[in-house]
Design goal:
The complex is a heterodimer of chains A (244) and B (279). Chain A is an all-alpha fold. Chain A is 82% helix and 0% strand. The longest helix of chain A is centred in the C-terminal third of the chain and has 38 residues. In chain B, the strands form 2 sheets. In chain B, strands 5-6-7-3-8-9 form a 6-stranded mixed beta sheet, sandwiched between helices. A 3-stranded antiparallel beta sheet of chain B has the order 2-1-4, with helices on one face. Classes of the chains: A mainly alpha (244), B alpha/beta (279).
Amino acid sequence: MFLAALVLVWEIFVRLSHISSLLVPSPEGVWGALAEGFTSGTIPRAVLASMGRMLIGYGLAVAIGLPLGVAIARVSAIRDTIGAAAMGLQTLPSICWLPMALLWFGLSEKAVIFVVVMGATFSITTAVDDGIRNVSPLLIKAGRTLGARGLRLQTAVVLPAALPTIVTGLKLGWSFAWRSLMAGELLYSEQGLGRVLTTGRDLQDMAQVASAIIVILALGLLINAYVFGPVERALANRYGLTGD
Amino acid sequence: MKIQISDVSRTFNGHAKGHHQVTALEGIHLGVREGEFVAIVGPSGCGKSTLLDLVAGLQAPDGGDITVNGQSTRGDAVLIFQEAALFPWLTVQGNVEFGLRTRGVPRAQRQETALQHLQTVRLVQFANAMPHQLSGGMKQRAAIARALALDPPVLLMDEPFAALDAQTRDIMHQELQRIWEETGKTILFVTHNVREAVCLADRVVLMTARPGRVKDILPVDLPRPRSVNDPDLAELASVALAHLREEIQKVEREEFDSGWCYQETSVPSSPGAGLGNIR
């Protein structure tokens, strides 16, 4: 409803003001560009290319971030060294790594993926570390008195107790990865949604730019609604975190 | 003796720098017979919870020796807490099976044992419920079933009913007496509620304030099942409370401004109003 009203206001605004369509595209124009993008295959190809990078980059970030978080939470020597560094690096916008990545990996896929990995890893690491360290001492005590020690205590008590925080971290990591990917693709890539944005700018085709933005937005919302949303809801229901 | 506590002491370092050490427990001697129900009562900070942690093997004593079942290898005693501390990601039955899974008991046998103990605490119909769906009393019963499933020779209970409302607590007192009689477990029960201690225990151990020592041991020879509202029980509780009064005052002198004094009249005396809480 709200979305429809927004489109209507947009249409009215474009019709009444006589701003050039080079600056503000009309909903009609954007719709045309979207349809054109889908029929010509430009947008599906771009989505596939971006998602492919995303899966590799995010997969690597999870593969590095999860064990690193566990190590930081459990080994104080690692917490004081790598942990402190990870906290510091988290504040650095990941796109800052691109120049370095371009020098290391050349003008290649790897450079953009590197930026994605740097963008997502540390937020996952921090969440895992937080989640593990904030596990209620009472639950750990309960686990111990029921005979769980060592690895069994970690896998059967600490990890499940930290899971909701870890999932929040994975979600946060995804959104950081997504931003990093778009930034990386804007600056350099041969294909992908970021590339569609750059092409739109180069051709002064505002409708194409807007259509790419809509696709990027929609993808983000879809992933939240159909991947992280259900997982978070299932966890909240199981753990009784809904508050009632 | 099922539990033998000999000359046990435990000292903690103060939190802030420059704080001297706090002696939580000093020279504790206590023997608990097989199948006996012993309650420990004392003012806050007398180290009663620490004592249970020591018996459970969750902490090590600084001095002295504790044996359960004649062995100093601990882990034969399972601890039950004030908060049920159920694992929120497991069903009630999953919680009861937790200790058995840790021991590597096969699935079918685990389920059978779990259901049997859920039956003991009368929670079978909630076997598949999640902990957050249970009331406080049900959670505590699930926690008792979880402990019983391991078939420990000794149950340690650390103020298990302190967070429950008065009615639920009364029911739990009946339930615990029944479970204790059915299972024949040796129970060491910590509380700050004198009347609760007298209601449940064969012997009530009165402890002193910091450092925690055994001040007195009071046998309770009232017939079972007992109810907290029994006048004989109330009388015995007031005797125990009188024994403890000095200790309570000691804590109050430490915790209140100087010049404050304990007034008899400020203690509610109508039956049921003050359930013998000393803190």
